[in-house]
Design a protein that fits this description.
Length: 322
């Protein structure tokens, strides 16, 4: 072997001879002072929203839970009764009736407001002249006070002098009694509520429509898909996250319906439109049963929580996130 030729070195020997790269030592955990400083910083940013949340949401909820265990008429000292208020409400047929009325309102309101909002969103998503103005016009009722809306709809649906019955009479149709008729009181509230909330649903669904990739529609047209097939196979599935949000919010608001009932019918006639929150109001301020009212409010909270959790669990089956 020539002295100019380097001797062959085995790979194992080379690996053993080469120094191993020095790994940087793991950073030690933060000191206790640093963790406290970080926690205080996060708390400082959360306080502007945490303080109102605690004062106006968590605080009243805890107070209502405490009051629900007492017999209290808002004047005399509270008397502890345990779960008697809950037992009395469960045994009272009126409790089931107001829950049924509330569910009936939701059954009429939710499809009407969603289908109407979807049609508006589809129409105003097209290249129309003045569509920005139309979007603002349809959204205007959302920011209008419910008292104003209720007064307007009481006038529109007045059985004798209202515009609706006058128009029906002009075509030979006898208009119903609307909010003065027990059979039509709840439909009157549903119509007014859907009209007011159409703009909100329209905006949410319109935002969802504008987030759909236009290439999907182009590919569907190339494959010969018509307008209905594109709506069913592309628009509605891709719009499912927005639909899920609308359904959850609308159901929560539906269970808490109060303003329009109080302003339009006051729960009448004959209790035909009495809903849960109206019953809570009456128990507290008309009958002086704040304990029962608080118990009923917690029962309503339990129902809303159960329905919302069920929707969140069930969304995996029909909500498609792109």
């Amino acid at each position: 072997m020539s002295i100019l030729t380097p001797p062959a070195i085995l790979p194992d020997a080379t690996a053993a001879a080469a120094p191993r790269p020095v790994r940087p030592a793991r950073r030690a955990g933060r000191s206790r002072a640093a963790r406290i400083r970080y926690s205080l910083t996060v708390l400082a940013f959360l306080l502007p929203s945490a303080i109102p949340l605690g004062l106006f949401v968590l605080g009243p909820m805890i107070a209502a839970a405490w009051i629900s265990l007492h017999d209290w008429n808002l004047i005399a000292p509270m008397r502890f009764v345990g779960v008697d208020n809950f037992a009395q409400l469960l045994a009272d047929p009126a409790t089931g009736e107001v829950f049924l009325h509330t569910v009936g309102y939701i059954v009429g309101y939710l499809p009407l407001v969603y289908i109407g909002g979807l049609l508006l969103a589809l129409a105003l998503n097209q290249s129309l002249r003045g569509r920005t103005l139309w979007r603002g016009i349809y959204f205007l009722p959302v920011v209008t006070s419910w008292i104003v809306v209720a007064i307007v709809w009481r006038w529109l649906l007045n059985p004798s002098t209202g515009i609706v019955n006058t128009a029906l009479a002009a075509v030979g149709v006898d208009g119903p009694g609307w909010w003065t008729d027990p059979a039509w009181a709840m439909p009157s509230i549903v119509i007014a509520s859907a009209w007011k909330d159409l703009g909100f649903v329209m905006v949410i669904l319109l935002a969802g429509l504008q987030s759909i990739n236009p290439d999907l529609y182009d590919a569907a047209r190339v494959d010969g898909a018509g307008a209905w097939r594109r709506l069913v196979s592309i628009t509605l599935p891709m719009l499912s996250p927005s639909t899920f949000f609308v359904v959850v919010i609308s159901l929560i608001n539906g269970f808490q319906v109060f303003d329009q009932v109080y302003a339009m019918t006051g729960g009448g006639p004959g209790g035909a439109s009495q809903v849960v929150v109206q019953q809570i109001y009456d128990l507290t301020f008309r009958y002086g049963a704040a304990g029962e009212a608080s118990a009923l409010s917690w029962m309503l909270f339990a129902v809303i929580l159960a329905v919302t959790v069920a929707q969140i669990i069930g969304q995996k089956r029909w909500v498609h996130y792109a």
